[in-house]
Design goal:
The chain is an alpha/beta fold. About 35% of the residues lie in helices and about 15% in strands. The chain contains twelve helices and twelve strands. Strands 1-2-6-3-7-10-8-9 form an eight-stranded mixed β-sheet. Strand 1 and strand 2 form a beta hairpin. Helix 2 packs across helix 4 and helix 2 crosses helix 10. The chain is elongated and about 130 Å long.
C-alpha cells in the first residue's frame, strides 16, 4: 500500500511539473498578430534599431567605485549622458513635444565597504487630466561589463562579463526610450497620472538608482506615487506581468488591456508555481519571488508594483540555466545581441508588445482609478511575529501528527499478548516437557537429599547456593 501511495505521488508531481512547463512555454511566432488590420503603436524595426545603437555606443556601463572613476567619466555616466541626449533629440524633432529630461545624481551610496557614485536619467511627462497621482516606469541601464574591485581589495567584487548585456538590461532600455518618444510626441488626452520614465543607475548594485529616486520624492511625493513599473530581462520566450502574490485590481485591469489588444497569448501573469529563491527583504520572511529581484523590491511595501520580464525566471524549472531549450544568457559573458537574435528572433516584436500594453494601459481614462483601488493588505503576514507564529503552529501540527500516528501504528502493529501457563515441576525438569509460554515452579523441600551429596537438588547444584557449605 505504501509503495502504491509513493508511486502515485511521484507520478502526480511529474504531471504537475510537465503541465507547468507546457503552460509556461511561450511562442516567438508573431506572424498572426495584427492580421485583422490592427496596428501596434510601436515598430519592431525601431525597437531593433534603438537597441543596436544603444549597445554599440554603450557596451561598458559598469558602475565603478568612486575612487576608481576617471575624471573623464566612466562607462555608466557616459551611458546616462547618451540616454539623456537621445531623448532630447527626440523631443526637439517634434515642435509640440511635452515633458523634460534631466540627469539626477544618486549621491554617494555605500555598498559593502565601498562608496559608489551614480546617476539616474529622468524624463517626466505631466498628466493631461491631472489627478494628483504619479507613476514611475523604469529600467536599470548599467551592466557588469568590467570588473568591479574595491580600492582595498576587500570590499565588493564582481567579475566582469565582457558582454554588452542585451537581455540584462539593454532590451528594456530600448523599450523605455521608444516609450519616451511616444509619450513625448503624441497627444494623450486621457492621461490621468504624471509619468516619470526613469533609467536607473546602479541597478546591478543593490538597486541603488531606484532607492535614490524614491528618496528624492520626499514624503509627499511618495504618497502620490501609486505605481512602480519595472522592465527587466526582456528577450526570453514569453512576457510575464507580475503584480503581487495575491490578485489585484491593477493586475486584472492590465491583463484585460492586453487581451483587448490581442496579446493574450503572448503576455500574462506568471503561473502559480514560481521558482523562488531564499532571499530576505528587510524585516520580511525569507521568501522573495524572482519578480522582486529587481527595482520593484524598492517599492513593494509602498504601493502597487508591476514587473514585466520574460523567460523561465517566472515558471517552475529545475534550474535557471535554460529558457525551455533556449539559453538563458542574461548577466553572463554570453549576453550579447548576437545571442539574443539567435535565441529569440522575435525579440523586437516582443519589445513592441510590452511597450504597447503599457502605453494603452497608462493612457486609459480609468487607469488612475485602477491604481487607486483597494487591493487589501496582508502586510501582517510578512512580519517577524507572523513568521514565529507560523513556525510555532507548524511545529505543533507536526507534533500532534506524530503522536497520533505513533498511537495508530503501535495499536496496529504491536505484538499480541503472550499467555503464560504456570506448571509445577514435582520431580524436576528432567521429567517435564516445556513448551512456549510455560513457567515451572520447583516446590521440593530443601535439605535431606538422598544422593549423598548433601544437596536438596537432585538434578545438580542449587542455583541459590552462595558457594559456602554449612558446617
Amino acid at each position: 500500500m505504501a509503495k502504491k501511495i509513493a508511486i502515485t505521488l511521484f507520478l502526480s508531481l511529474i504531471l504537475v511539473f510537465s503541465v507547468a512547463a507546457l503552460a509556461a512555454c511561450g511562442t516567438d511566432d508573431y506572424s498572426s498578430l495584427f492580421s485583422d488590420g490592427a496596428e501596434s503603436k510601436y515598430s519592431a524595426e525601431d525597437m531593433r534599431g534603438t537597441l543596436e545603437e544603444f549597445l554599440s555606443e554603450n557596451a561598458d556601463r559598469t558602475s565603478l567605485v568612486k575612487s576608481f572613476k576617471p575624471e573623464s567619466g566612466d562607462g555608466e555616466s557616459r551611458a546616462a549622458e547618451w540616454i539623456a541626449a537621445r531623448i532630447t533629440d527626440m523631443l526637439e524633432q517634434q515642435p509640440d513635444s511635452v515633458g523634460s529630461v534631466r540627469i539626477v545624481s544618486t549621491g554617494e551610496r555605500r555598498f559593502g565597504v565601498d562608496t559608489f557614485e551614480s546617476q539616474n536619467v529622468i524624463y517626466s511627462v505631466p498628466a493631461t487630466v491631472p489627478s494628483g497621482k504619479r507613476i514611475v516606469i523604469g529600467a536599470h541601464y548599467d551592466n557588469l561589463y568590467a570588473d568591479v574591485i574595491s580600492a582595498t581589495g576587500a570590499g565588493y567584487y564582481s567579475r566582469g562579463t565582457g558582454a554588452e548585456a542585451a537581455v540584462g538590461n539593454g532590451a528594456a532600455v530600448a523599450v523605455l526610450l521608444e516609450m519616451c518618444r511616444y509619450f513625448g510626441t503624441h497627444e494623450l488626452k486621457d492621461l490621468s497620472v504624471d509619468v516619470d520614465f526613469v533609467f536607473y543607475g546602479m541597478g546591478c548594485l543593490d538597486y541603488g538608482g531606484a532607492q535614490a529616486y524614491r528618496e528624492s520624492l520626499g514624503e509627499s511625493g511618495r504618497d502620490d506615487l501609486v505605481l512602480a513599473i519595472t522592465l527587466d530581462g526582456l528577450g526570453g520566450d514569453k512576457l510575464w506581468m507580475y503584480f503581487d502574490e495575491q490578485e489585484t485590481a491593477l493586475g486584472k485591469f492590465m491583463t484585460t488591456i492586453a487581451g483587448s489588444l490581442g496579446y493574450g497569448e503572448y503576455i500574462g501573469e506568471p503561473p502559480v508555481m514560481q521558482a523562488d529563491v531564499d532571499e530576505t527583504l528587510t524585516d520580511k520572511l525569507p521568501y522573495t519571488p524572482q519578480a522582486l529581484l529587481n527595482e520593484s523590491s524598492v517599492y513593494f511595501d509602498y504601493g502597487n508594483i508591476c514587473t514585466i520580464t520574460s523567460g523561465s525566471d517566472f515558471t517552475f524549472v529545475f534550474g535557471n540555466g535554460m529558457w525551455y531549450g533556449k539559453e538563458n544568457a542574461a548577466y553572463t559573458s554570453r549576453d550579447t545581441l548576437g545571442a539574443l537574435e539567435a535565441n529569440n528572433p522575435g525579440y523586437a516584436m516582443q519589445m513592441c508588445i510590452a511597450a504597447d500594453v503599457l502605453t494603452c494601459a497608462v493612457s486609459h481614462d480609468t487607469f488612475a482609478a485602477a491604481c487607486s483601488a483597494d487591493n487589501g493588505s496582508y502586510a501582517w503576514l510578512t512580519s517577524r511575529i507572523a513568521a514565529y507564529a507560523g513556525g510555532a503552529l507548524l511545529a505543533a501540527g507536526v507534533l500532534v501528527f506524530s503522536v497520533l500516528m505513533t498511537k495508530h501504528l503501535r495499536k496496529k502493529y504491536s505484538d499480541a499478548e503472550i499467555k503464560r501457563n504456570i506448571k509445577v515441576a514435582v520431580f524436576g525438569m528432567d521429567y517435564e516437557d516445556p513448551k512456549e509460554g510455560d513457567v515451572f515452579v520447583d516446590i521440593r523441600p530443601r535439605g535431606g537429599g538422598d544422593d549423598g551429596s548433601g544437596s536438596d537438588v537432585p538434578f545438580g547444584d542449587d542455583p541459590f547456593d552462595d558457594g559456602e557449605k554449612k558446617k
